[in-house]
Amino acid sequence: MSEVxxxxxxxxxxxxxxxxxxxxxxxxxxxxxxYNTTGDEVAEAALLEQEFAALVGTKYxxxxxxxxxAIATALRAVGVGHGDRVLSxxxxxAPVPGAIAAVGAVPLLVEVTEKLVIDLDDLANxxxxxxxxxxxxxRGHICDMDALMALCDAAGVTVIEDCAHTMGAAWRxxxxxxxxxxxxxxxxxxxxxxxxxxxxxxxxDPEIAARAILLSGSYMMYERHLASPPQAAFExxxxxxxxxxxxxxxxxxxxxxxxxxxxxxxxxxxxxxYHALEFGVRNTPGLSVIERNQNERFVGSSFQFLLxxxxxxxxxxxxxxxxxxxxxxxxxxxxxxxxxxxxYDSWRYIDITPLPKSDEILAGLVDMRVPLTFSVDECSLxxxxxxxxxxxxxxxx
Length: 397
Description:
single chain, Aspartate Aminotransferase, domain 1, alpha/beta, PyrdxlP-dep_Trfase, PyrdxlP-dep_Trfase_major, transaminase activity, 4-stranded antiparallel β-sheet, Aminotransferase class I/classII domain-containing protein, 13 helices, pyridoxal phosphate binding, Aspartate Aminotransferase, domain 2, 7-stranded mixed β-sheet
């Protein structure tokens, strides 16, 4: 009888007990709003910002309502306005082009490579058409950041990093989010720390930080931030910067602070599971694993593989067979978006220029969540199921 996986691909681990206790303490005193403090009390949100800044080695940090809000705020804070073009990866999720559209700007998409990172050759050809690159480290895959920054710096292009899938990751020892002018992170349930929703923005630029804090809805209480620039940075802009409220509250911040302390251990656990999956499917006929760069320290919270050159019918057959055995796979080459998964030509609120290299990659790109509720042995079981079903369909070719 064929093996069947019986776990859930959407079940997260419980919130740690110390995080629950911290959240209950906030609920008991009732001061959930980040600026609702008494006496010498420091808000949980301000402490979270200070601790995350120390974790990634940045000067300034802002906690906000979501990762998408962090990105849109970063775009506004670096000066992107209505009608401006913003470069970004073709392979990403909808909140990235959505953030560009939210500020009235126009996404200019760049091809993706078989390593699932931005194509630096295509980027080089398009750098003259925009002043900002919103770089998505999609599904935790980090490109050659040294080469990318050299290109962008030479062209005078400001880089904003979308690190929704790379909190805890690094390129050549530098934390993800620390190469560009701004790094943006997500604290949504399926990311590396879980507040249900939430986001973090980091930068070393005092003007960008001050503008972001004012945009987030600080009113004139920006002095209550700990990981913020000097008060002088606010003086020139505090009357010209609109309030687009998107603050993180103290309840979410209280949930996140203990999780941040445990992040390095969680990264190690994710990568054990990732390597079990990678080992289990490697050398499967018709399947290509995504080879990781040795300079990349990644977080294996999701797993991808390619079925290069396969027809849509064959890919769908693999997905259906695996699903019958309890393994839920997502496909980035589907004609219509499904759940959280969509392809760049589904974003019909932007002008679409065909990207043939990306189309070829996405047509065979299969994706899977790796919750920490899976054991390493269960990941090996999942890999066996994928291997068997891919091999079976491949042999029919």
